[in-house]
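=== Structure Prediction Worksheet ===
Name of assembly: unnamed complex
Input type: mixed (protein and possibly other molecules)
Chain count: two
Listed entries:
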Amino acid sequence: MPDETQSATSFVEKPKTLAALREEISSGRTKATDLAASYYARIEEKNPRLNVYLSLTKERALAQAARIDALAAKGDPLPPLAGVPMGIKDALVVQGAPATAGSKILKGYQPPYDCTAVARLEAAGAVLLGKLNCDEFAMGSSNENSAFGPVRNPVDPERVPGGSSGGSAAAVAANLAVATLGSDTGGSIRQPASFCGVVGVLPTWGRVSRYGLIAFASSLDRVGPFAAHVRDAATLLGAIAGHDPMDATCSAAPVEDYAAASDKPAAGLRIGVPAEYFAEGLDAEVRAAIEKGIAALEAAGCSIHPIALPHTKYAVPAYYLIATAEASANLARFDGVRYGYRSPQSTSLAGMYAHSRDEGFGAEVKRRILLGTYALSAGYYDAYYRKAQQVRRILAEEFLRAFAQVDAIVTPTSPFPAFKIGEKTGDPLAMYLADIYTVTASLAGICGVSVPCGATRAGLPVGMQILAPHLGESTAFRVARAVEAAG
Amino acid sequence: MSAKVTVADVERVAALAHLQLASEEVEPMRRDLNAILGYVAELNQLDTTGIEPLAQASERMDGQASAGHSALRPDLPAPSLARAVVMAQAPESDGVFFKVPKVIER
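=== Predicted Assembly ===
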């Protein structure tokens, strides 16, 4: 028993704020190279247990850190994220580093270019430590679908970190990076942020370029940051957001100063609380923690409004039809021809495709490809895919109507705290239902933040999901700051 | 849409998706697909007559962000990745072309 208590606390460590790091580096008290080296030392010590990093980019990181140190030594102005040690979800490509997306089919792949979000972070001075474990092709809610083994939750290593960006959340929770990037298709940033007790941002669909994100479901996929502090998450979103000529779906709307916006008090904001997110299936301790968070918002001067989102229960089925249909098309590119794994046991082209894909993909990815292919196949398209898209419009419009009455909507991020490794792996449908509170915002394209909001008696973190309308990130950050301040 | 998925359905869909499932994979997939499709049949409760399908969220952002969503980059020639860099990633290549197993049988 004493061992259990020890393991439950030994991995959690809160990273410093970006402001504190900036002060240390610009004053010369801390060298960026020493900081990077200290993170690599910590990774070497903790990663064997947590399995957060899949690969390290030491050479590139130390070269970037040396550039920052040279600037600081000359007294030159430092870029905004100078020396900040960061990790990147392995579903995003970084030139010269392996990119597996958690899949055996991409083992050994070395992408020949940088994704836009990573290039922007590096241009802003960030130091990229390495690539982070995730569910295969971002498909999963527990990080147990990685071909390279599950990530363990730093709060309790017997539990999952959530998924699919489990490595990105766990890295911040264990201070194996100051901040990280992940991707969110149906909850893959928000849910692991909530399970690991960190801040995770779902930007508006189109707010951040997806160039260099290995695609899962393109009408849903988004890239976003994880951080230990709300203001830092806002700063990071500001660094990666904005138009990119390499992604035609990326919005040209001006990028706001999210960090400054998050400094504004939340007083006066109208907060909607949808009854459907507090119904049957919600863990009692999670409910109590969120209700306490809502009371804190009221105490901070927000007005609380009960609202109704009656079609919420249709979101998970609509989501799994749309996401798998798009995935079945996106994953067609993995064919053993241009990169990645090729099966040796084939003498015909068609056989080579089919064997490479069967041997390269894991069970959940195959399940989703088959489901998506089924939903798009002749005779079923209207009944499944078209129907789901119609429901998607109903859900999106329901949110827009709600946002005519309130500035933000708050809910639990997940109906339960982090579950045990292996607890849900036998039942794919039970795993899909873990996404019940996150997929609706994904379908609607709106933005949100998951912010730590208390814990269960056993010490498992609870996350509050704060949703705001399209391009309403500033509002979501303001509310998140108020929740953070109360915690 | 409360179809019962058969083994033949799984095999048909796997062939469409170019997935050569091992024989022991077929039955668990059939079971899982049935469970998931049974669950998504909940959507049948909803009358969606006359509702336009929503393909992606940018359609709902008109007036807020549409400026960026329709902006295509100028159609100008620009260098692409070097052939040698790309070919280095191929499972099999002669340096100029991707090599694949025989396509046409004699």
